[in-house]
Every structure is written in C-alpha cells, then in structure tokens.
Amino acid sequence: MKPLEVRPLEGVGAEILGADVSSMTVGEWNQIEAAFAAFGLIVFRDQILTESEHLDFARRWGPIDTHPPEPKRGVWHNEGSYLGEPPLGAIEVARELPADGETIIFANTYEAFDTLSTTTQKALEALRAVHSSTTHGATNNAEADEHQHPIVIHHPVSGRKTLYVNPTFTTSVEDMDERVGLALLNQLYDHCQQPEFTTAIEWEMGMVILSDSRATLRFSPITNASSGISRVTVAGARLLPAIAPAKKDPTLTQRAGATLAGGILTAAMTGIAEVIDPERVQHEIEIVSEAPEPDDLPEFDFGELPPLD
User: Fold this and answer.
1) Domain range for residue 241?
2) At residue 55, what are phi and psi to the nearest 5 degrees?
3) Is residue 138 part of a domain?
4) Which pLDDT does position 280 carry in this prediction?
5) How far is CA 199 from the centre of its chain?
6) Average pLDDT of the chain to the nearest whole number
7) How far apart are alpha carbons 265 and 100 in whole angstroms?
8) In a domain, 301, yes or no
9) How many domains does the chain have?
10) What is the CATH number of the domain that holds 277?
11) d(CA 68, CA 122)
C-alpha cells in the first residue's frame, strides 16, 4: 500500500495530497481516518464532488445530522456544543467563492490543553461547563438547548485530552462563582486563540475541509459570508470526561500505514505556505469574544485554581 502524502499545517491540521475522496481504496480510507484522528482537521485540494458523493463521504464518518446547528460567523465556537450529543464535525466543499475570497480559521484544542501546566490540567479535568444556545438566539429547536460538558474531554478515537469550551456558547463553570468562572473561561479562550495554535485557510475551488468539533475551534469572518461553501454535518455522541478515559483504537497506528509513527503523522512540513498565513490571525482578522464579561472581572491565575474536593 502506497501511503498518501500528509503535510502537517502550522497550528492545527494537515493537508493530504494524492487522494480522490470520491473514489478511495480501503488503504487510502484507513490513512485518512487515522490522519483525522491525529490532527482533527484535514484539507484536500482539487476535488470534484457531486452532492451525492459529498453525502457518501460524510456518511463514512457517521450518521448525517438532519438538523444541524446553524453556522456562526464572526465568533469562535464549537458547533452545537449546547447539545447533549454535539456534532462530530463537518465536511465542507468549496463550489463557488466570492470575488474577494473566503477565509476560515481553526484553533488546535489538543495542543492548547497539552501546553498548560500539569497542575492546571489536573484542576481543569475536574470541572464542567454549561453550554447554552440562548447566547445567540434560538436554534433549530423551538426551545433553547442547554447542557453541561467536561471542560477537558477525551477524544473518543485518538484518546487525547482536549479543551472543550468556546466563547459563543459556553456560559459558566458549573458550581463556580460566576465572576471567577467567567474569568477562567476568558483566559482559556485567549489561550486557545494564540497564533501558535491557529491556522488560517484560504478557500479554493474544489477544496474539501474535514473538521473535528471535538478537537478544534473554528472562526469564519463575517465579511467573507458566502453561499458557495456546501456543508454536511456529521452527528456526534455524548462527550466523555478526561477523568474517565475513552478506550483508544488499538489499530489506529497500523491502519495509518507508513505515515504514522507513535500515533503522530511525521510528514515534512513543506510546500504549505500558500495554504497557511498565521499572521492574518493576528493582524488582519479581528477576533471577537462573545462571552459575557461583567465589569471588573478578577484576574484569574492558572496557578491558583480553586481547591478540588
């Protein structure tokens, strides 16, 4: 089996070259599946997908979400995090682009968690946050949705720990003083949005982006609103806390073939300058936090997390 070429992107994700997602061998599918678990974001170029082929590719990942959350622009978010079983992620295809282009940004919540101190990680693993649809109006349901999820979850396939909070739908930390909880959440948002964890991608005709809502945050600028991006959302499942680790897939590395080493893809980071421009995250795109911010929030110190019971 000849491995596909996998090029990690700076910040988050990877580009896969040599794949035709409308017609894959079993070996190619296994490599793509393993890369998705490892990176949480996969970019394909020059794909020609009919609507039927788009749906077929999405169904490989799980059941189609027949009532997907409405896409949000101008804010960082995990889509549908206010649901009891949030979406796994989305498969998007560029069929038409506006004259001035289209950009989408992702943040790596795997690495955002990994770079926290051990003390902070342990403290966060014991906390849960409230996610509500009321922060941005009603959803597809007649009634507002609100659910609690662990702040740190175990990814159900990779087994890695990842942060699961976002400034659009996360409203509070369960059993924590409101002001202290908001201060903690705001610092986590700032931590996740640092340039070293983010990737800005310029859409191109025929580009396909596969994103994992459990391993990434996403941001689509309001100014780039386009109806030419076709999107299918894949249904998810209940999120498991980090303190009760999910079972890892023991065949993940084997199925990745020669592209994996110790569970992490090792392809060289070359030839991706045209895809990534990390500086745009800082200088050209205004990042908006929609989290409520009462006056005079305390300065939250990760080294002084509330004592655990």
Assistant:
1) 5-294
2) -65, -40
3) yes
4) 32
5) 11
6) 80
7) 34
8) no
9) 1
10) 3.60.130.10
11) 33
**Residue 44: other Cβ atoms inside 10 A:** 22
Out of 6-20, 95-109, 252-266, pick the least confident. 252-266
Residue by residue, DSSP assigns 152-173 as: EEE-TTT--EEE---TTTEEEE
pLDDT at 33: 95
* Exposure on the CB side of residue 12, measured as CA atoms within 13 A: 31
**10, pLDDT greater than 80:** yes
Q: Are the C-beta atoms of 211 and 289 separated by less than 8 Å?
A: no
CA distance 294 to 271: 45
- Rounded CA-CA distance 130/159 in Å is 23
What would the mean pLDDT of 273-296 be, rounded to a whole number? 36
Read off the pLDDT of each residue in 58-86 and give the average, rounded to a whole number.
Answer: 92
Instruction: Give the position of tokens 């990680």.
Output: 121
| Domain membership flag for residue 34 | yes
- DSSP annotation of 296 reads T
168-191 average pLDDT score: 96
**Separation of alpha carbons 156 and 89, rounded Å:** 13
pLDDT of residue 22: 94
pLDDT digits (tens, 9 = 90+) for 33-53: 999 999 999 999 999 999 999
Q: Which two tokens stand for residue 249?
A: 């897939």
Measured CA to CA, the distance from residue 161 to residue 110 in angstroms comes to 6
Handedness of CA 26, 236, 12, 104 (dihedral sign): positive
Q: Is residue 214 part of a domain?
A: yes
Phi-psi region of 40 (alpha: psi -120 to 50; beta: other; left: phi over 0): left
